[in-house]
C-alpha cells in the first residue's frame, strides 16, 4: 500500500483470505529492504511491531512472514522475533541482548516490555505498528489497554515523528470511528476498504421441515443428521456453536452419527489446553480432520488450511461475527466462501433468514468503544512510573491522546492517582503501604516505591482476569478446564464431555480434577458453560421489522398464506418449506394472541397450572411476557429497571428470565393485582430516572460484585499473580469480597467501584439501548393480552425459565407440552 510505504497510518478492511496481513507487512519489508541496500539497517533495533489478540495467530504470522523473507533473500538480513507469554526465558534473554527488526507480540507482552529500560533504546527506533484483527480489540478493555501502550511507545520514540499505525480487519464499522481508535487524537488515518469481489454463498438449513413445532427430540436428531451429511460429503468442515458446551455436545453426537469418521472429528475452544488446541489446528491444516466443532476460538485469522463449508448452529448473533466465520471457508480470493446457518427452532429460523440477508448486504454491527476504564488508567500509570518516573501532567497527556480516553477529565484522573498513592480515601490511613503503588519523589515526579511493586506489576499486566476454572486431567495429560461451579455439582462416577470425548470423574485434587476415558457412554450430567452471546441490536431490529411486515400482510391486508409465502420466498431467498414453517408459526401466534412488532409493545399474561405443583392455591405466580425486541443485553438492563420499579410500586420481588426478543417477569398474585392493565405498566416504562433506577437495581448485585473482582485485578488492587506463583481463586474472591463491602459502605465513589458499575452496564448490559427503548415505547401501541396457553412467540422465554430454574423437564419436552396446550386451546376455541 502506498500509504504504508509513505509512513502514513491506515485502517485496511478487507475480506478474510484476501491478503491484507501480507499487504500490511509488504510496505514494512520494502522499507527495511531499502535501508539494507543503503547500508542503514542496524542490528539491535526494533523497526516494526505486530500485535495480535491471539497467541496462536502470532505463531502463525511468525511462520508465514518467514516465507516471503526467504523468497526475497532477506531472511538473514531482516530478523523476526516472537514474544508472548509462552516464549521461553532463553529466547527472551536473547531478544533483550539483540532485539529483532520485526517484533511479533500480544498486547500483554508489549505492556510488560514497555517499562523495562533494557528495551528503551530498541523501542526508540520503531517506525511501524501493525494491529491485526482490530475489530476484536476495538470494543473491549484489551483494546483500550493496547491504545495506551501505543501512546507510551510514542513517548519513547519522541515528539519529532509519529508511528505509522496499520490496522487490519475483515469486519469493522464504522470505519471512521475505528480509524480514530487506531491513531488516537488529532492524528490522520487513511481509511481503505478493499472491495474484493469474492463470491460467497450463505444458506439457511432447518430440520423443522413444514411443522413449526415437531415432537421432542426430533429437531436435535434431524440437525445432527443434516450436519453429518455435510461433513460426510466435504473434505473439511468447520462447525461453529455459540457456547463451549454446545461445541462439546455437537462434537460428541456427530461422532456417534459418523462412527467411521470418529477419529477425524475434533473439538476446539478456549477451555481446552493449549497443547490440545494446537494439535487440532495442526491436524486441520495438514488435512487429517474432516470436521472441527468450535465455539468462537477459530473465528480469527489463524491459518487452518482449506475449509469447504462453515456450518453455524444458530446465528452468531451479529453480522460482523457471521462474516468472520463464513470467511474461514475458501480461504482465498479465488474461492467461494460457503456458509450454512442451521436453525434449531422456529424463532431461530426467522433469525437465520434475516441474518443471511444482512450478511449478503454486509450490514455490519457498529463498534461500541469502552471509554475511560479507570483500572486500565491505574495499571498504565504504575507502568509509566516504573519506567523512569513521570509527572501527573505527562501521564494525563499520554492517556488523553488515546481515543478511548479522549474524554477523560483531570478530576477523574486525579482520583485514580489518589487511589494509587494509598488505596483511596477509605483505605489510605491504615493500608497505604499495602495498596500504595506510586509515590511522589519530591519534585512532582511519580515513581514506584519498591522493587516488590515492580515485580507485582510485571506478573499482573493485562486485563484478562482469573475466572474460576478448574483443570481437568486425563492421566498426566491436561485436557482443559471447566467452571468451578460445575465441579461442585459433580459426584464420583459422573460422565461429562470435554474435548469431544466422554470422560468419567474419578478424583479431585487442589485446583484440578482427574478423569478417565468413558468411550461409548452417554453423559450423565448437564453440559457445562452455557454463557450465551447476546443478539446484536441491529439484527434484533431487522427481525422486528420482519415481524411488523408479516403482521401487516396477515392481519391488515389479510393476504392468503400462498401470497405471504411467495413474498417470503422472493424477499428473503428462502425455500417454500421454510416459508410455510414461518407462516405456521405466525398463524399459531395470531390464534392465541397478537404479533409483537416494532410499533406495538405486546404484554402477555399467563398462569401455568403445571409451573410448580407444590404451590398452594392462590399463591400461584403470574407470568408477564414482554415482547421487547431489542436484544438480550438491552432486555437484561430493561428487566432490572422494571423489577426495581415493580418492587417500589407493589412490593415483593419478581423472578425474571431474559431472552433476545423479550423478557419474562413472574410475580405473585398479590403483585399482579396492581399490574393488570396496560396503563399500569406504562407508568413503569417511563424513561425518567431510568439510569438512576438501574444503578439502584445493581447496587450490591452479584453482577457488579463479580465485575469488581476483575476490575480490582486489572487495577492492581487485588493481584491475581504473585512472583513465581498464581493465587488461588478463593483467595482472590475473598479479597475482592471484603474490598467490595468496604468501598460500597465507606467510599461508593471509589474509581474502581465506579468502573465496575460502568462495565456492568456497558459490557454485560446494553443500558443505552434500553434507555432509548423507554423513549421510543412512549409512542408505541400498547397491548396487554391474557393467554390461556404460552404463545408461540413466548416459547423461548418460558423454556429458558424452565432451564434456569432447573425444573425436572427437558427443554424439548417443555415446548412439546406447551404446544399441546396451545393445540388444545385452539380446538376448544374453534368449537
Radius of gyration: 28 Å
Describe the strand arrangement of the main beta sheet, using strand numbers. Answer: 3-4-2-5-6-1-7
Mean pLDDT: 87
Query: Gap between N and C termini, in Å?
Result: 73 Å
Number of helices: 33
User: Main β-sheet, in a few words?
Assistant: 7 strands, parallel
The secondary structure category is alpha/beta
Helix content: 40-55%
pLDDT under 50 segments (min length 5)? 804-809
- How much of the sequence is in beta strands? 15-25%
Describe it for me?
The protein is 47% helix and 16% strand. The strands form 6 sheets. It has a 7-stranded parallel sheet, with helices on both faces. Strands 8-13-12-9-11-10 form a 6-stranded parallel sheet, sandwiched between helices. A 5-stranded mixed sheet has the order 18-17-21-20-19. Helix 24 packs across helix 27. Mean pLDDT is 87; it is low at 804-809. With 831 residues, it is α/β, with parallel strands linked by helices.
Write the layout of secondary structure elements.
Elements: H1 2-5, E1 10-13, H2 20-38, E2 48-51, H3 55-71, E3 80-83, H4 89-97, E4 102-105, H5 107-113, H6 117-123, E5 128-131, H7 135-138, H8 141-157, E6 164-169, H9 175-183, E7 190-193, E8 200-205, H10 218-233, E9 237-240, H11 244-257, E10 265-268, H12 274-285, E11 291-294, E12 309-313, H13 319-326, E13 337-342, H14 346-360, H15 374-386, E14 390-391, H16 392-401, H17 410-422, H18 428-435, E15 439-440, E16 445-447, H19 451-458, E17 469-474, E18 477-483, H20 484-488, E19 495-498, E20 501-508, E21 512-517, H21 537-556, H22 561-572, H23 576-592, E22 600-606, E23 621-626, H24 632-650, E24 655-659, E25 662-668, H25 669-672, H26 678-684, H27 690-698, H28 702-714, E26 721-722, E27 725-726, H29 729-746, H30 751-764, H31 767-776, E28 781-786, H32 795-804, H33 811-830
Parallel strand pairs: 1-6, 1-7, 2-4, 2-5, 3-4, 5-6, 8-13, 9-11, 9-12, 10-11, 12-13, 17-21, 22-28
Antiparallel strand pairs: 14-16, 15-16, 17-18, 19-20, 20-21, 22-23, 23-25, 24-25, 26-27
Helix pairs in contact: 5-8, 8-15, 10-11, 14-21, 15-17, 15-28, 17-18, 22-23, 24-27, 24-31, 28-29, 28-30, 32-33
